[in-house]
Amino acid sequence: MSRSERSPLLLAGLLAAAGTAHFAVPRQFDAIVPRSLPGTPRTWTYVSGAAELALAAGIALPRTRKTAALAAAAFFVGVFPANVKMAVDWRDRPAPQKAAAMGRLPLQLPLVLWARSVARSGEGAA
């Protein structure tokens, strides 16, 4: 299997694992939901987890890959405020935890670019 064939499946796997984690250990995700959002943090945790699972399924299927990958890119941009909240909330934690929270911030850009690359490679699959 070539790299271009593996890339969408790896992205789908990442999203599926993250989506599953939202249901398996929701408390850690509840804590990073920005307070400005309406409703309860748990609702947002479950909605974002379900979105990640749906995106994973869409990317895994060649027929829906392009649309789902573009939606994933938008999703990665949309969850950035949660990563900012985590970095702010964790600024007084021990160095390894603070580094992990800060490390999530620049990670969003490669995720967006990866999803866009998958979308481009999926253009002929529709």
Automatic annotation (TrEMBL):
Pfam families per UniProt: DoxX_2
Compartments, record wording: Membrane
The UniProt record lists the keyword Cell membrane: no
Membrane topology, as annotated: Multi-pass membrane protein
Signal peptide feature range: 1-23
Main location: membrane
Highest taxon above the source species: Bacteria
Keyword list, A-Z: Membrane, Signal, Transmembrane, Transmembrane helix
Membrane-spanning parts: 43-61, 68-88
Protein name: DoxX family membrane protein
